[in-house]
């Protein structure tokens, strides 16, 4: 499993973001989405409560890591 640290550095609609910063941010976001898609395709499942706690922490600007996969994943 790939571990990635996420931190909300600035609002995405920041007028102070330069074209170069925007390009770098979009590349980083694309990379994180690729990791997430690979995890999902590999059967990763995260319980609702764990995901909600992660989102709350991220929204509050706390540094967060990907939540651990739940021990009992539902079968599709």
Provide an overview of this structure.
- The chain is mainly alpha-helical and 76 residues long.
- It has a domain at 17-65.
- Helix content is 46%, strand content 5%.
- The protein is built from two helices and two strands.
- Strands 1-2 form a two-stranded antiparallel ribbon.
- The longest helix is centred in the middle third of the chain and has 23 residues, at 19-41.
- The protein is flat, with a radius of gyration of 14 Å.
- The two termini are 20 Å apart.
- The model has no long low-confidence stretch (mean pLDDT 78).
List keywords for this structure.
single chain, 76 residues, mainly alpha, 5% strand, two-stranded antiparallel sheet
Mean pLDDT reading: 78
Dominant shape: flat
Rg result? 14 Å
SS field, number of helical segments: 2
| H-E string | EHHE
The number of distinct β-strands equals 2
Portion of residues within helices: 40-55%
Could you give the order of strands across the largest sheet? 1-2
Q: Which structural class fits the helix and strand makeup?
A: mainly alpha
Q: How far do the termini sit from each other?
A: 20 Å
| Low-pLDDT stretches | none
Strand content: 5-15%
Biggest sheet layout? 2 strands, antiparallel
């Amino acid at each position: 499993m790939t571990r990635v640290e996420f931190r909300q550095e600035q609002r995405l609609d920041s007028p102070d973001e330069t074209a170069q910063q925007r390009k770098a941010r979009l590349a980083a976001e694309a990379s994180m989405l690729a990791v997430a898609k690979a995890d999902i395709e590999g059967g990763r499942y995260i319980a609702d409560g764990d995901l909600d706690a992660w989102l709350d922490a991220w929204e509050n600007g706390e540094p967060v890591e990907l939540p651990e996969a739940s021990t009992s994943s539902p079968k599709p």
